[in-house]
Amino acid sequence: QVQLVESGGGLVQAGGSLRLSCAASGNVVRIDSMGWYRQAPGRQRELVARITSGGSTNYVDSVKGRFTISRDNAKNTVYLQMNSLKPEDAAVYYCNAYIRTTNWNNYWGQGTQVTVSS
After folding, report:
1. What is the pLDDT of residues 41-58, one digit of tens each?
2. Which of 17, 18, 108, 115 could form a disulfide with 11 if both were Cys (CB 3.0 to 4.6 A apart)?
């Protein structure tokens, strides 16, 4: 089995920064893409940022220039550095990864709350 464990969420004032981390553990053979999604109350879950195993990245337009996704392949960990946070960034953030154990499967973390006060 595989677990994705997130950390780093919390309460921050508008304009502030947070860094989210997500570590994969368990019977991990290989990790392909990793990403961060978010879901605010009453809204659909949306992709925030994604990074391939080779390091290529893509971002939703609303976070470009403010958020940076990165990964440490040796630690099976993905990060999301969030700067210049806005109240509209508040949501539950979920880690996602496409991981090979005996087969390839899509895995989700449990979510971490990000709250931004104005």
Report:
1. 999 999 999 999 999 999
2. 115
